[in-house]
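User
New here, help please:
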Amino acid sequence: MLFSFSRREFIQSSIAATLGTSALGVTSQTAQAIAPIQRGVKGTRMKLSCAAYSYRDHFKSGVMTMYDFLEACATMGLDGAEPTSYYFPDPLTNEWIIDYKRRAFLLGLDISGTAVGNTFTHNPGPEREKEIQHVKNWIDHAALLGAPTIRIFAGGIPKGSDMTLEQAQKNAIETTQEACAYAATRGVFLALENHGGIVPDADSVLAIVEKVESDWFGVNLDTGNFHTADPYADMAKVLPYTMTVQVKVHIQPQGGQKTEADFKRILTILADGGYRGYVALEYEGANDPISDVPRYIEKLQTILARM
C-alpha cells in the first residue's frame, strides 16, 4: 500500500485516463475520493484466523484464558489468532504482551490483528480526545505485540444529542484521520469495521473510508454485520478497500430470517476481488464455541483447499 503518489492522485488519474481530462464531469466529492487498496500483485491469498471474541463467555467465566485461546487456534491448524483486546489483563503490562507474543510464535501462530472498542463520532472536546488517546494506546500495544492491524469502530450518534448524520460522519473522518497519522508512525494499520451505528451498509462505510487520507487505513469487512437487502452485494462493494475480514456463521438480510452463511460464496467474493490477507472466524452462534468453532473452521479450511 505504499505509493509514489497519493491514493487521491491515483483515483483522479485513473478517472482521467478512462474518460479523458476534458470529459471528467465528476463532482467534487468524487474527485476527493481515495483509491482502493493497490497490492501490486494479481491473484488471491487467504489465511485463516480466529477472533478471541468467539470465546467471550468462557473468558468471562474463567473457563478459558487467553493462553488457552492460542492453544486452541494452534490445535485447529490456523495460521493466526486475533487476541481481541477486551480480554487482555487490566492493567496491561509490556511484559505480558511480550510473553504472549512469545507464546504465539512458539505455537507457530501469527498475531493476525486485534481490536479496540472506540467511538469516533464525538464533537471536538474531552470525550473525543479520550477516545483518540485510547486508540493510540492500543496502537502502541499492537506494535509491541506484532499485530499488523487493529479493527476500529465509528460508533453512532451520541445518545441525547441532536447531532446530524453528516456531522457524525465528519467527526468520524477527523478522528480517524488523527488516529491513522499516529498509526503510520508505528507501522500499524487501522481497519474500520462495518458495525451498525453510522456505518450499517456499504455506502455509509465508504462515505468515511473514501475521505480518510492514509496508506495505513482500510476496511475490516464483517460478513455478518450487513443487515441490508443483499449483504453479499455490500461485501463485494467494500472489498476494494478491505484489508482484513471477519467471517460470521450467520447472515440476516433486511426483513429476512437469520440463515447460515454461505462460506463458499463469501470466499469466492474475496477471491474474485483479489483479496490477500486473513479471514478470521468470529463466532456468535448459540452453541458452545469449544465444539462449534472447530467445526466451522474445518468448513473454511475445506473450501479454501478446493479453491
